[in-house]
From TrEMBL:
<dbReference type="InterPro" id="IPR006311">
    <property type="entry name" value="TAT_signal"/>
</dbReference>
<feature type="signal peptide">
    <location>
        <begin position="1"/>
        <end position="32"/>
    </location>
</feature>
<protein>
    <submittedName>
        <fullName>Cell wall-binding repeat-containing protein</fullName>
    </submittedName>
</protein>
<keyword id="KW-0732">Signal</keyword>
<dbReference type="InterPro" id="IPR007253">
    <property type="entry name" value="Cell_wall-bd_2"/>
</dbReference>
<dbReference type="Pfam" id="PF04122">
    <property type="entry name" value="CW_binding_2"/>
</dbReference>
<dbReference type="InterPro" id="IPR051922">
    <property type="entry name" value="Bact_Sporulation_Assoc"/>
</dbReference>
Amino acid sequence: MIRSTLRRAALAPLAAATLAAATVGLAGTASAAPAAGFETLTPVCSAQLPITHPGCVAGTSYRGAPLPDGTPNQIVQLSGDDRFATAAAIAEHGFPEADVAVLVSGEDRHLVDALSAAPLARSLAAPVLLGTRDSVPAATASYLQKHQVKAVLLVGGADALGEATTGRLQALGVTSVARVAGVDRYATSRALVALMPKSTHGWAASGEDAHLVDALAASGPAARLAEPLLLVADADPLPAAASLTALGVTSTTVAGGPEGVAPEALAPLPAPQRAAGTDRYGTAAGLAAESVDRGVDADDLLFAPGVTGHLVDALAAGPLGRATLLVGDVDSSYDVVEAWFDTYGAGRVTAVGAVEIDG
């Protein structure tokens, strides 16, 4: 694991207090009235949802992550021994009660399949967990068993999550397993978005390998606002535009500059506006600021790795629904963090995966 060596000036307001221990061991069955001091997650299921969601059938609400208590300078560290354990730790924090989970591939080459999954997962009161083509890793299996998860939605084709993975889920007691996949990454993204609730605003990002990080930075805000996040193909943007329009979207925040989503791909989207910086860190900050303008809490911030090879941690953190800054050992990352704290102050900061904060 890498260690983020952020300048102390950037993190000077943050004390070395860790709340992670307070978020462990909160497993339980769904509640009619979730406990005070926690988010309440109420699933919104479309008629097209291919799994049976117990919460939608019974009208259940679930306890979510602890709410910020207003105390400044809090740090929550969520990480595990590997990416699968990190995703499970994030799930325990954000979804201490769950009947449903969304399973995506934890392999880097299939990262793109799940970029649109975070908003859907949160709308289902479900965490994003990681699997492999042929197995359910121990940390993922432990979460599913501990919470007695009954339904799992697979994202991606059989090359990402194969039949052996499906069989293992059934052996773990999962009674409803279904898959959302398309002929390519863009079709998979559209299939996920089609299961989202209606929204007047949406988010769009490049589906090209070199720019996937922009979609990761947008996933938390889109999830919090229950808005779709769609991958756009420069060569054929019309299907993405049609998908957004079908959901009622009348305005679109586009992640990144023209090197990611080309002008000709941006034009057909409903009332597009870019949120972009000079690099991935600046773009993430622009997206975070846009999300705050739209109602996301500036005092409940997520730090996720912006370094290639560790981006999967941001994928699992998307359903937490927080404004997200990407962190890396470069000056532009440090500058973005400093500017954020100068503008918004320091409330609760949650660092996931390879990001470690020293107070």
